[in-house]
Write a structure and sequence with these properties.
- The chain has about 325 residues and is of the alpha/beta class.
- The protein has a domain at about 5-175 and about 215-240 and about 275-295: Rossmann fold (3-Layer(aba) Sandwich), CATH 3.40.50.720.
- It is built from nine helices and 13 strands.
- It has a seven-stranded parallel β-sheet, sandwiched between helices.
- Helix 1 (about 15-30) packs across helix 6 and helix 5 (about 190-200) crosses helix 7 (about 250-260).
- It is globular and about 55 Å long.
- It holds the Pfam family Epimerase.
Length: about 325
């Protein structure tokens, strides 16, 4: 573990994963100067009520970035700012915000010689037909412009690192859930959506027949892995998941258990032409290179999340 860091920049730090990351870094590195940049297009200030550093409104895809940071020289940049709404079909907007924004961050990193850890996505793998754990080096098949933007970011990161010798590490998130996502509304995790339905006494709605499987990763594990990624021995990309593929039926069963309910799913036809039936992260690489092992399986993660949402357990980021 890095013992001391003087300065940290977090883009997208008021969002779901970003705010959890910021507050954890604040506790681990109390002497570090931490600056957050966020355009607040998909964030909420309430997630940062316990944050003690500087927060600036900024669109990192514009030159505004360079004026905002001024003489700030970050040792590490955690780049999470991007459009994360996968239903956005405006290709120019998605590429400009995600890809151009990343290129600006890399330019800043080049000037300050920063280590960069950036958010990639498991969506780059596409709709996997075979039910096998997904390794980082498998063939990519992005099915929408969001996934394509992340795929191009991975390419740009590799080229930039080879050219400059600076370390750039991608964290390829699978299905992250946990406290701090409520502001995302309908774009919050399915676990949160199903929680709300069951909490209100409604039958949880699932696509037929609820046996689609996902690698659900609790946000605390995602944050731990993201912080650890800055210690990678070289520029690379790591899967960030639980390593397990669990069904939506299992999610409903666990939510029923922890909420004291017994509501049967309401199954309906999937309206989407493209829908991932299966995701599972192969976690071998990050375990071998960094020693990371997830602490939360689905049972433990949902139990803690429900306790936070029900006000039984305190968490510094909003539920």
């Amino acid at each position: 573990m890095v013992e001391e860091i003087g300065s940290i920049l977090i883009t997208g730090g008021a969002g779901f994963i970003g705010s959890n990351l910021a507050l954890e870094l604040q506790e681990r590195y109390p002497k570090a100067k931490i600056m957050i940049l966020d355009d607040f297009s998909s964030a909420n200030f309430k997630n940062l009520k316990k944050f003690r550093g500087e927060v600036l409104a900024c669109d990192v895809s514009t030159d505004e970035l360079f004026f905002k940071v001024d003489d700030f020289q970050p040792e590490v940049i955690f780049h999470l700012a991007s459009i994360t709404d996968t239903t956005v079909t405006d290709q120019e907007l998605m590429m400009r915000k995600n890809v151009d924004g990343f290129k600006n961050i890399l330019e800043l990193a080049g000037e300050s010689e920063s280590v960069v850890v950036y958010a990639s996505s498991a969506s780059v793998y596409g709709n996997v037909k075979e039910h096998v754990p997904l390794k980082e080096d498998r063939e990519k098949s992005p099915e929408n412009v969001y996934a394509f933007s992340k795929y191009i970011m991975d390419n740009i990161a590799r080229d930039f690192s080879e050219k400059t010798g600076l370390k750039v590490v991608g964290v390829r998130y699978f299905n992250v859930y946990g406290p701090g996502e409520a502001h995302k509304g309908k774009f919050a995790s399915m676990i949160y959506q199903l929680y709300l339905q069951i909490k209100k006494g409604r039958r949880p709605r699932l696509f037929k027949w609820g046996e689609q499987r996902r690698d659900f990763v609790y946000v605390k594990d995602a944050v731990d892995a993201t912080i650890l990624a800055m210690e990678a021995p070289h520029s690379t990309v790591y899967n960030i998941g639980s390593g397990e593929a669990r069904s939506f039926n299992e999610v409903v069963s666990l939510l029923n258990r922890y909420l004291g309910k017994d509501l049967e799913p309401d199954y309906f036809d999937c309206p989407y032409d493209f829908y991932q039936e299966f995701t599972q992260a192969d976690m071998g690489k990050i375990k071998k290179e960094l020693g990371f092992v997830p602490k939360y399986n689905l049972e433990k993660g949902i139990k803690e999340y429900v306790e936070i949402l029900e006000g039984k357990v305190y968490h510094p980021v909003g539920g």
